[in-house]
Amino acid sequence: MNHHELRELLSAYRDGEAAKNERSLLEEHLVHCEECARLMHGWAELGSKMKSIEGVQLPVGFSRRVLNNIRQEEEDTSFWMPVEALARKTVLGLSMAVILLVVFMLVTEPAQPVIIESYLSGEVQDGNAPSSLLQRESISKDDVLLAVMTK
Ligand SMILES: [Zn+2]
């Protein structure tokens, strides 16, 4: 095993979880590898410092202040709870309305389009109308006014 592979096993070795053959390999490696030895030493130092922290006393009223802060945060969030619930219900209601509208539009048959083809084809079939219009050179304003007035 090389340095990197052995270094991966250092944590397990420290916790006493390394296999017997791994332990002997690591112990031999720690004699020669300064970096891994330094890492092991650092962990040992950290562990001893953590043990010395256990005797630290919390200031008087610390737990009461923590509880008060937690209660204050709960009150702050509970103020917005009804607003948030209303917003959620509104969004849900609008979504349902849109879904129902789409379903309604899909289920009901679309209105029959007005077929104007017959009118157009009627004009085309009536061969006299276009030809009579074409015979006259143009429709004057007076013709249009007369048509509107007489209708
Ligand atoms: Zn090493």
User: What class do helices, strands and sheet pairing give?
Assistant: mainly alpha
What is the rounded distance between the termini? 107 Å
Taking Cα atoms only, what radius of gyration do you get, to the nearest Å?
Answer: 46 Å
Largest sheet: none
- The pLDDT mean sits at 83
Instruction: State the shape.
Output: elongated
What share of the residues does DSSP label as strand, in percent?
under 5%
Q: Assign a percent range to the helix content.
A: over 70%
Number of helices: 7
Query: Count of DSSP E strands?
Result: 0
Low-confidence sequence ranges: none
- Enumerate the distinct ligands: zinc ion
What are the secondary-structure elements, in order, as H or E? Answer: HHHHHHH
Strand-helix topology:
Blueprint: H1 3-14, H2 20-32, H3 34-53, H4 62-107, H5 117-125, H6 128-135, H7 141-150
Describe it.
The chain has 151 residues and is mainly α. The N and C termini lie far apart (107 Å). 78% of the residues lie in helices and 0% in strands. It has seven helices and no strands. The mean pLDDT is 83. Helix 1 (3-14) crosses helix 2 (20-32) and helix 2 (20-32) packs across helix 3. Among the domains are: 3-53, no CATH class; 121-150, no CATH class. It has helices at residues 3-14, 20-32, 34-53, 62-107, 117-125, 128-135, 141-150. It is elongated and about 120 Å long. It binds zinc ion. The site of zinc ion has 7 residues, from helix 1 and helix 3.
Short descriptors:
mainly alpha; 151 residues; 7 helices; binds zinc ion
